[in-house]
Amino acid sequence: MGSFRGGIRDAAVSVIPGHYSLSVDHSKPDDIDTLLIDDTYLYPCKPTGEVDNSRPYRHPAIVSIIKMKFFTGSTSIGYQHRNRFTSSIKEGSKALEMEVPAPIIALVATAVRVYCLSNIFGLTTRSLDICCYCGVSKWQWSNQI
Hints:
Layout: H1 2-19, H2 29-36, H3 60-70, H4 77-80, H5 102-121, H6 125-134, H7 138-144
Helix pairs in contact: 1-3, 1-5, 2-5, 3-5, 5-6
């Protein structure tokens, strides 16, 4: 599971700066702060630049990471197990649509959040993984090193 989660993290690191227009050297931490306010990083923007709060988890970065890690190629999990991606809606035309399971969306959204937090705290994404999964705060982490 750790290497799988690491693959998601690596995909996030490669996709996020471009999709959120962040500087590669992270010289604008305010941009990252803005993404975390009200979980803005989860939502796409309208053509006007305004955040579209009606479409959670549809930010192009999240969609891109999901496609990259779960639906690219015939050996991907999404391709091999496509019959399991059924709709949670049981009636009507949407009942036939395929749906990405909530745990996949949650895993990718967490990877994006970890990326943002790691840049604010000045930690590597690997170090922040440890903090997030163990419930260690930045203060505790800093004082343990």
